[in-house]
Amino acid sequence: MEINVLEYKKNRLKFELIGRTHTLANVLSKELWNDKDIAVAGYTLAHPMTGNATLVVETNKGDPKKALRDAITRLKKKNKEFLTLIKSLK
Fold first, then answer.
1. How many structural domains does the chain have?
2. DSSP state, 50?
3. Which of 35, 65, 67, 89 has the lowest tally of Cβ within 10 angstroms?
4. Is residue 48 classed as helix, strand or coil in its secondary structure?
5. Alpha-carbon distance 27 to 32, whole Å?
C-alpha cells in the first residue's frame, strides 16, 4: 500500500491512500473517533471509480501520526478477535 503525505503539522496530518477508496478510509476514520484527543477525523474521495481516499486527522493534543498508529493497532486487535470468533464457529 502506498501513502502520500500531503500535510504534516504539529496537530494535523493529511494523507492520501493510493489505490484505496471507502473501505479502509471509513474504518480508519471511525476508529480514530474512539480516541478522546481527536478533533477531526474524516476522509474525502474525489470519485469512487478513479480517486484515492484523502484522510485528515487533527488532534486536540498529541501527535496525529501517533493517533493514527494507535487506531491501526486497535483495528488489528479487533480483526484478530473477529478471526478467532469466526474460526470457533462450527
1. 1
2. T
3. 89
4. coil
5. 9
Q: Could you tell me the strand order of the sheet in which 2-8 lies?
A: 2-8, 12-18, 53-59, 38-45
Question: What residues contact 8, with CB distance under 8 A and at least 6 apart?
Answer: 14, 64, 65
SS3 of residue 89 by DSSP: coil
Query: Residue 32: which domain range?
Result: 2-88
Quote the percentage of the chain above a pLDDT of 70.
Answer: 100
CATH number at residue 21: 3.30.1360.10
pTM, to two decimals? 0.88
Residue of 81, 84, 72, 77 whose CA lies nearest to 30: 72
